[in-house]
Amino acid sequence: MFILNKESLTVEISEPGSDYRGTRFDWSGVFHRIVKDGYVFVDSWSDVEDIHVHDHVRGPSEEFVTVDFYGVEPGSVFVKPGVGLLMRPDVKPYDWFRLYPIVDEGHRDVEEYDCGILFRHVLDGRYSYEKIVELLSGDTMRIAHRLSWNDARHLEGFAYNHNFLTFGGVTVGPGRKVDFPYTPAGNWRNEYDNVALTDHGIRFNAPVIPPSVYMGDLHSADGYTPYSFHISEESIPGERPRRVSVYGSTPLHHVVFWSNPRVACVEPYMPLRLGRGETAEWSILYVFD
User: Fold this and answer.
1) What is the DSSP letter of 60?
2) Per-residue pLDDT of the chain (289 residues; tens, 9 = 90+)
3) Residue 181, preceding peptide bond in cis (omega within 30° of 0)
4) Cα-to-chain-centroid distance, residue 121
5) Alpha-carbon span 49 to 194, nearest angstrom
6) CA–CA separation, 95 and 92 (whole Å)
7) 23: closest CA among 52, 48, 49, 62?
8) What secondary structure, in 3-state letters, does 35-47 show?
9) CA separation for the pair 43, 58 (Å, rounded)
10) For the chain, does the N or the C end have fewer beta carbons within 10 angstroms?
11) List of residues 6+ apart from 220 with CB closer than 8 A
12) Which residues contact 104 (CB under 8 A, 6 or more apart)?
């Protein structure tokens, strides 16, 4: 376990492959706990104990979603950045909840420095990936990425962050608020009576009832969707309102919103397209208040 601490902000991060070995999320920078001023913003949100299941991840959990899978014949391999080289076992469509056979985990190393950690993952002949998690101040965390692509097949898809924020374990309901710097538009998967879009964000008028609520195409109504949002909890007994503000360096294609009774997740999807010899760099700031 790696522990970063700056003033009143403490971030705990697991070693790659030690706390999560699924084939959905990036193994670099798997968060375990985030605490600010004694208040727990990130902790366990699921009862799942199997480290091969994606529900075992916490906090800002990142995934690369690519179209590479659909050009691969059954029995052949496809690249999952952050995880490694995986096998497509049959003709079934890609399933985020499925555990795919790992053919090559690649090479990983970690470098620690003052208030920061560098995770490096190299898959020979395919890509070189670096991810830095660092504390810039007593309330701000930065995640910086650099992905250099070497494979003959183009990488085309999205990088996104699931953002499992637990806010002290308070049940998601009217106190949980999501705000955007734009008027959001999108379509709910079902007709929910406990959640709705507003002119500035998402509001709950009752606690979330299992299993979940979902919107897969949230975006700015005017067509430009910046990587920016605020999520807060304002009904914590005896506590002041708590908020996490998130700012990314790259505009978004769209946002997914998913919530169950324990977490309300804003998932920003950043478009990603790389040819052989090309490199992408991007960063995300988290401000905890």
Assistant:
1) S
2) 899 999 999 999 999 999 899 999 999 999 999 999 999 999 999 888 889 988 889 999 999 998 677 788 899 999 999 999 999 999 998 898 999 999 999 999 999 998 999 999 999 989 999 999 999 999 999 999 999 999 888 899 999 999 999 999 999 999 999 999 999 999 999 999 999 999 999 999 999 988 899 999 999 999 899 999 999 999 877 778 999 999 999 999 999 999 999 999 999 999 999 999 999 999 999 999 9
3) no
4) 18
5) 30
6) 8
7) 52
8) EECCEEEECCCCC
9) 6
10) N
11) 180, 182, 183, 184, 185, 226
12) 77, 84, 85, 123, 124
Q: How far apart are CA 45 and CA 23, in angstroms?
A: 19
Please count the residues of the chain: 289
Q: What are phi and psi of 266, to 5 degrees?
A: -95, 120
CA-to-CA distance for 27 and 50, rounded, in angstroms?
A: 15
Q: Please give the helix or strand (H or E) that residue 135 lies within, else none.
A: strand 127-135
Residue 264, CA atoms < 13 Å, CB-side half-sphere: 27
Q: Do the beta carbons of residue 32 and residue 1 sit within 8 Å?
A: yes
Nearest to 85 by CA among 137, 121, 50: 121
Residue 166's nearest CA partner among 262, 288, 31 is 262
CA nearest to 259, candidates 223, 206, 180, 221: 206
- Phi and psi at 114, nearest 5°, equal -60, 115
Task: Name the residue type at position 89.
Answer: P
Residue-wise burial string across 19-40, b where 16 or more C-beta atoms lie within 10 A, e elsewhere:
bbbbbbbbbbbbbbbbbbeebe
Other Cβ atoms within 10 Å of 175 Cβ, number? 17
CA proximity to 119, closest of 33, 247, 31, 51: 31
Sign of CA dihedral 244, 15, 61, 106: positive
